[in-house]
């Protein structure tokens, strides 16, 4: 069969470009799965006072950092070499931003694991940790949904994630107030409860990063940001 | 005078490229100055219980966000159109990352201002806030130095900033412990001191972002990351 060498070259270039875009998405998926695992493990380590597991979370976070560096390099390389058009440029820019957000979620999981190591007393901690489990359930669901919205290019799903962040914020506020009362009831609770406050805040921040990712997905798919102001409640940053 | 139109065109292109790079640097400088101002103002608002000032900090943070968006768009446009070589690509990529870090520093200032509004009691707060002033002094100095290191392309200065983050971490730990004892002494301190804990944590995180910026500057100038492990202390994320 006769083949046009120029056409073959073009097809090859197109294939390499598509492969590179696919690689970005697979890297994001891998980062997301790893960050989810570290988050879950950090809470299990806290609940079961499992210091070995906490240390593994701390170690594994560097894997997420490495994938982020890969995404950044691949994305900048793609932009420089291929000069992508609007939609692809939005895709590549979104991948970089989302990788950055997932990297910070990994940091937050690591931070929970570090705090778990620092909480030495476990007396009466169990009932207080229950609310964290509830927050984590919401946070994990939202983060999973936003990763799916990126993979499926589903702006509607991303927008629904974006709207639901207020639930996490509300749980955080309730838990924060409960912790204050535990501290007031018994001064021995103050140290461990201070750590639990920061852990709850970390989960709330995972929710914030999830919301930011949702915004990037909406912009990537539609070329414009979500239409109205996000319902917010806390003093969250 | 006779002018070669092709050479003139080339010079024009080079000039536009240099102008674009200069614009990136000026945007970073503007963001840095604004973030510094918001940080300082947030602490003054807290110290003087000045709610009007706190609200101004919260409002002005959106200006930083707007400059970050400008940096991102300008940087991606530059990469796509000019296909910059290694050193320029490092410069542009660093500008994006640094803009992201400064944006988060702005968020932290905004968060301090929001917490300042939430602290209703001011009884006995003054002496506890003194340590925050000390932390802020260090944080502001470090942030100022790292912005200078970016503007001057001074990797040695950036590396010295990078090494000094441990000082901020140490002050944070001391203050955190002091706050725990205030809480234990008097249950009425628990609410306000919990906010002060988060404010101190925010300053410590400004230090972390400053350190990240320092790493980017070192990489931008030298093409490689700082040589050894950074001395660290806290459970910081």
Report on the structure:
2 copies of one chain form a homodimer. Chain A is about 85% helix and about 0% strand. The radius of gyration of chain A is 21 Å and the shape is elongated. Chain A contains 7 helices and no strands. With about 240 residues, chain A is mainly α. At the A-B interface, α2, α3, α6 and α7 of A face α2, α3, α6 and α7 of B.
In short:
With about 240 residues, chain A is mainly α.
Distance between the termini of chain A: 62 Å
- Shape descriptor of chain A reads elongated
The major beta sheet of chain A can be summarized as: none
Q: Overall pLDDT of chain A, averaged? A: 89
- Tally of contiguous helical segments of chain A: 7
Q: Biggest interface between protein chains, with counts per chain?
A: A-B, 33 and 33 residues
Oligomerization status of the protein chains: homodimer
Helix content of chain A: over 70%
Task: Count every beta strand of chain A, where a strand is a DSSP E run of 2 or more residues.
Answer: 0
Overall structural class of chain A, as computed from helix and strand content, comes to mainly alpha
Poorly predicted runs of chain A? 233-237
Note the beta-strand portion of chain A: under 5%
Secondary-structure element string of chain A: HHHHHHH
Q: What does the radius of gyration of chain A come to?
A: 21 Å
